[in-house]
Amino acid sequence: MTNESNNKSLLENEMWLQEAIDNEHIKYQRYSTFENKERIGQGSMGEVYKATSTEFQKTVALKKFKISSKFTINEIINEIKLHRKVDLHDNILRFHGVTTLDPSDYGLAVKIIGGTRETNIRGTPLKYVDIYTACWNKDINCRPTISQVVKDLNDIKMNEFNEFSIRASLYAI
User: Fold this and answer.
1) Which one is the CATH code of 3-113: 3.30.200.20, 3.30.70.3270, 3.90.1150.10, 1.10.10.10?
2) Which of 39, 85, 82 is nearest to 63 (CA)?
3) How many CA atoms lie within 13 Å of 49's alpha carbon, on the beta-carbon side?
4) Please, what are the averages of pLDDT over each run of 10 residues along the chain (173 residues)?
5) Which residues are documented as binding site?
6) Which end of the chain has less neighbouring CB within 10 Å, N or C?
7) CA 80 to each of CA 13, 20, 26, 133: distance values in angstroms, whole numbers, following the listed order
């Protein structure tokens, strides 16, 4: 799938979810309505928590999805759709709705997964731009380690210090 068609699919699924919430086909619950959250398991898609819903006065399971380049909103939407199909079976946990830890985190995650990256601030030295551009590489294996980032920043600081020292000595003469 191309990046453009993946972004389109991502946008369509985000719109599908928002429309389902707006039309009350899927209930949105504020995260603050859950108490006594206790992690009870984890898998490839995320972590599962046991919590008490103050709205339902029941113990519920909360699934916290991992958002990464391998697992996106598209897979979350697919899981919601599949769950809705089997929701009536007695041996399946009921799907009550969705929540977010922080709505702004959700929006940021969707943008990052969709390919949005920080724009350069005008006047930022190119060496700094190179470092944070490398950190935002879509391929996680091509991103620098924190040790490499610190080394690169120290190299920049040292070069700037040396350039300043040379200029200062020229003007002191």
Assistant:
1) 3.30.200.20
2) 39
3) 16
4) 56 79 83 88 82 85 71 74 73 71 55 65 84 82 89 80 57 57
5) 63
6) C
7) 11, 11, 9, 34
Write down the domain spans for the chain.
3-113, 126-172
Long-range contacts (CB closer than 8 Å, 24 or more residues apart) made by 101-106: 101/31, 101/64, 102/31
Which residues have CB under 8 Å from 128's CB, separation 6+? 156
Beta strands in the chain (DSSP E): 34-43, 46-53, 58-65
Annotated binding site for ATP: 63
103-to-26, 108, 147, 168 alpha-carbon distances in Å: 16, 9, 32, 51
